[in-house]
Every structure is written in C-alpha cells, then in structure tokens.
Model the fold of this input.
Amino acid sequence: MEAIRALKRRLSDVVYRHMLRDIQRTVTCPGGQPGGDSAIQRG
Done:
C-alpha cells in the first residue's frame, strides 16, 4: 500500500507542476501561443 501512496503522490506532483506551467504560459502569452497577441489573433 505504501508504494501506491508514493506513486499517487508523485503523479499528483507532476500534474500540479504541469498546471502551474500552463497557468504561467497563459499569463505571459494571452493568445495562448508564444509571442501572440489576442487582439491580433481575433482580428
């Protein structure tokens, strides 16, 4: 059972890090793509 708990913890950590990375990308690039400007993409 301890091995399963450790695996769940590691998976949870990976998912959390990916979520944070996605949030940081969204904040730095409003259009969702590097260097993109949402006003230009809608244009």
The helical segments are 2-28, 38-42.
